[in-house]
Amino acid sequence: QVQLVESGGGLVQVGGSLRLSCAASGRAFSSYNWGWFRQAPGGKEREFVASINWSGGSTHYADSVKGRFAISRHRDNNTVSLQMNNLKPADTAVYYCYAGPQWGQGTQVTVSS
User: Fold this and answer.
1) In angstroms, what is the C-alpha Rg of the chain?
2) Where are the beta strands (DSSP E) in the chain?
3) Among residues 56, 64, 77, 104, which is most buried (max CB within 10 A)?
4) Are 51 and 57 in contact (CB under 8 A)?
5) Are 94 and 6 in contact (CB under 8 A)?
6) What is the per-residue DSSP string for 52-77?
7) What is the maximal distance between C-alpha atoms in the chain?
8) Along the 113 residues of the chain, how does pLDDT read in single tens digits?
9) Taking the alpha carbons of 88, 37, 95, 69 in that order, is the dihedral positive or negative?
10) CA-to-CA distance for 17 and 77, rounded, in angstroms?
11) Interatomic CA distance for residues 21 and 92, integer angstroms
């Protein structure tokens, strides 16, 4: 069974930091692009946050998180991390990891003001 499992979400104050991790199990995802989307409360659409290519040499970020978030890939243990700094209330959302066509179940991030 192919699975992606996110971890690292939680409650943090404005200006704080969190590090999300996404671990793949069941098969190797070495040839896929990985990334993160998020869905804010209130029925908002899921939006792109960041992505990294299969080699780890190319990254992309949404304008709203540039300079604050950093995505990285760890090939030795088949995980991807999202370091989130200077968090804002607008970052409150469920964060979903993807690798190719596979999605994780999501992890909640709440930023309190």
Assistant:
1) 13
2) 3-7, 10-13, 18-25, 34-39, 47-52, 59-61, 69-74, 79-84, 93-99, 102-103, 107-112
3) 104
4) no
5) no
6) E-TTS--EEE-TTTTTTEEEEEETTT
7) 40
8) 668 999 999 999 999 999 999 998 866 666 789 999 999 999 899 999 999 998 888 999 999 999 999 999 987 778 999 999 999 999 999 999 999 889 999 999 999 99
9) negative
10) 23
11) 17
Token pair 């804002």 is found at: 88
- Which candidate, 10, 12, 17, places its Cα nearest to that of 85? 17
SS3 95: strand
Q: Which two tokens stand for residue 113?
A: 């003001």
Q: Are 18 and 9 in contact (CB under 8 A)?
A: yes
Spell 5-37 as b/e; 16+ CB within 10 A means b. ebebbeebeeeeebebbbbbeeeebeeebbbbb
Distance between CA atoms of residues 111 and 64, nearest Å: 15
